Amino acid sequence: MSKLSDNEIQEGLRELNGWSVQNGKLHKEIEFSDFDVAWNFMTIAVVEIQKMNHHPEWFNVYNKLVIDLMTHDVGGISQNDINLAKYLDKIPVIPSL
Predict the structure, then answer these.
(1) Which of 97, 65, 62, 69 has the alpha carbon at shortest distance from 83?
(2) CATH label of the domain that carries residue 41
(3) Does the N terminus or the C terminus of the chain have fewer Cβ atoms within 10 A?
(4) Which three-class secondary structure state does DSSP give residue 61?
(5) Which GO BP terms apply (predicted)?
(6) Is 96 part of a structural domain of the chain?
(7) Structural domain containing residue 62
(8) What pLDDT shows up at residue 94?
(9) Would you state the pLDDT for residue 97?
(10) Over the stretch 28-87, which tens digit does the pLDDT of each residue have?
């Protein structure tokens, strides 16, 4: 695993939905309808995150989730971050009951 070049990162961003690079990390902010929907998203995500053994920095307040991805071992964004972002983009938003 290695740190991606700026060109590789830009190429990866074209495959993602709503992600940008901020402070050397892949960054996305998601606003859900309420806390339950945000929590459902995180609960679904954690299963794959554990399998990948690649844990995001995320911050949740009520219906908002801020996600930052980078690979500390390489000191920047790696293909693992792109892969996790792709997975997160595919998680369905499940409405609260």
Answers:
(1) 69
(2) 3.30.1360.20
(3) C
(4) strand
(5) tetrahydrobiopterin biosynthetic process
(6) no
(7) 6-90
(8) 79
(9) 62
(10) 999 999 999 999 999 999 999 999 999 999 999 999 999 999 999 999 999 999 999 999
Q: Kindly list the distances between the CA atom of residue 39 and the CA atoms of 11, 43, 59, 70, in Å, as whole numbers in the listed order.
A: 30, 6, 11, 22
How long, in residues, is the chain?
97
Q: How far apart are CA 94 and CA 97, in angstroms?
A: 9
Per the DSSP assignment, residues forming a β-bridge with 65 are 30, 60
State how far the Cα of 17 lies from the Cα of 39, in Å rounded to an integer.
20
**What's the DSSP call for residue 75?**
T
Question: What are the tokens at 8?
Answer: 């590789």
Predicted TM-score (pTM) of this structure = 0.93
Amino acid code (one letter) for 42: M
95 within domain boundaries: no
* Residue 81 CA from chain centroid, whole number: 7
pLDDT band at 1 (very low <50, low <70, confident <90, very high): confident
Q: Report the domain count for the chain.
A: 1
